[in-house]
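Researcher: Here's a chain I'd like modeled. Treat it as a single chain, no partners, no ligands.
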Amino acid sequence: MLRGVRLALAACALTAFSVGPASAELVHLKSGRTLSVRGHRVEGESIVLMFRAGGEMTCDRALVDTIEPDEIPYPEPQLEATAGQASVELAPVPYGELIDDLSAVHGVDPVLVRAVIQVESAFAADARSRKGARGLMQVMPATGRQYGARNLDDPRTNLETGIRHLKSLLEKYERSVALAAYNAGEGAVKRFGGIPPYGETRSYVRKILSLLKR
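Model: Modeled as a single isolated chain. Structure tokens:
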């Protein structure tokens, strides 16, 4: 957790911390990112964020600027467990706290990140593909260089690089296309004007979306 950040909450934020959970809330982080969540609760110097897709993330209260009601209603999607596997947001996973922390810092849904990792590497930090992809998020060396990552075998570096790359794709494309670009490369998505007709890529997108069940 990041510590030592000075806590300076506006009056509306203090009010938001004291009220009961809303159907949806917007959490504005000091980093400038915004998360939409189902609700929150305060536990000492920490805030527990409850995600609409299920699961929770604990973060230092000093990381949060304000919390306000989200006026847009959302359904409550459920994650589906695949055969023989626990739901990615409920079962403890290796590097779970680090995954959630870095997802919050970069403004990416941690449940989506966990689903990507489940499909990419099954949470094996030492995973290597035949094409050279490495680590938890199976980051290619070229992608690592794009983000200045020097050691993709380090779990934190691998996660941060993969999350940053996923974030950049989500900012350009709708979710299923962004996932296809993460798997097949952005060039393939541009060439075909969407999800490319590759069996591996289409299966990859289906697996992640089935975990999210949104």
